[in-house]
User: Fold this.
Amino acid sequence: MSNKYQDQIDAFMESMKARGAHEVEFLQAVEEVAETVIPFIAEHPKYEEHNILERIVEPERTFIFRVPWMDDNGKARINRGYRVQFNSAIGPYKGGLRFHPSVNLSILKFLGFEQIFKNSLTTLPMGGGKGGADFDPKGKSDSEIMRFCQSFMTELSKFIGPNTDVPAGDIGVGGREIGFMFGQYKRIRNEFTGVLTGKGENWGGSLVRPEATGYGAIYFIQNMLERIGDNIRGKSIAISGSGNVAQFAIEKILQLGGKVLSVSDSSGYIFAPDGIHSEHLDFLKDLKNVKRGRIDEMAKAYPDMEFYEGERSWNVPTNVDIAVPCATQNELNEEDAKKLIDKGISVVGEGANMPCTPEAIEQLYEHKIIFAPGKAANAGGVATSGLEMSQNSLRLSWSREEVDDRLKAIMKDIHHQCVKFGRSDDGHVDYVKGANLAGFVKVADAMIDQGIV
Ligand code: NDP
Ligand code: 2IT
Assistant:
């Protein structure tokens, strides 16, 4: 994606590298934004005058803390906990918590940075933040998970609050972990408040929040297809991941008449030649959310499915119309993109955060594949978190239908904003540009209004 501002972009990235060359994921996320925002700033000098780009890439505050906990053998264990409070220009910091052994400051800064723009796109008043720990939930007992979550929250509780910073789930953090963390916050502060989202539906959670990221991603893809007079019905769709986002993306695809060819976890992928049906999805939810087993169990239970150890969903041995990566960052690279192009792909929608590498995106652009970046396509999760915050403030619960209708309307609005800022004269929509610029303008204007803080 070369442009006439390339020298300026390179100089800006050099200055970023000089301050933290090892933060590779963070630099990747910043570069993608800089490529579209720097040309925009050149045409809108007020953002240059207020030095907004240099200010927006620096987190307002970062906490790093020790998380001590005791395992089932009575042994003391230590993990590293984090919360990055990135930007509060348009609302309290908002964003998930990730528990995964790969977690480090670079990954959380990339996620917190993306969250600023994503939250701005939702139209709701939420700033950007992210946190987590290098804790591996795999193979841990429920008691160990509880003790870890309690210790993590004992420290995190000093920095968050319903009007300050409202965390939620992400990789490795679902309803079980949010429950344990909410319980500990309430016990420490003696306050029943909406300090976390993704809560249980009987204790302040919003209906449709568990489904919202996956459903929202498919609503967004549906919006992109409708714009070109098409829809999801009958499309063959490759999905990666098998966690929260993947499960509910599959559920919505099935409701809309699409065919799901694959699911995966970090051990490999499952190919379902006849498609994954609702019975298979029930099996998958039980396997991943209750039994917490590995994906090859699906091929053992359903002999018509095939398990490919150590491979990714992009290798499916058939044609593919749409790919929806729903696992993790950089899980779809240049080679994968080429393979998908050879299989006839026409749409890629990011359910995960930054799952496509820059080289993969370049391939997709060269071949005119419609591409939705995560900060637009997966914004339905945090948007519904925003709706959970509204319901908590009102001390009311909206019906499933009401929340789902609002989610649909928000995804449509995000699509509209992307088209407004990303459409070129020939009618083509650059959704990366559209999402970055629409997200940027609202936050940048708020930063200017609030002075140098
Ligand atoms: P889950 O923990 O529920 O599921 C994660 C899935 O991705 C699992 O199948 C996991 O496999 C796989 N995975 C994770 N890390 C890796 C890795 N390093 N290599 C290969 N596979 C991996 O997480 P979510 O579904 O909540 O999140 C998935 C993605 O969506 C993330 O990028 C997250 O940031 C993003 N997202 C999530 C939102 C939410 O509301 N939950 C909102 C917006 C974005 P395994 O079990 O083997 O590790
Ligand atoms: O990446 C994300 O948007 C999330 N993990 C959801 C954040 C939230 O606050 O609901």
Q: What stands out?
A: Residues 94-96, 118, 168, 170, 197, 353, 381-382, 385 surround (2Z)-2-iminopentanedioic acid (ligand 2) (CB under 6 Å). Residues 272 and 381 are 27 Å apart (CA to CA).
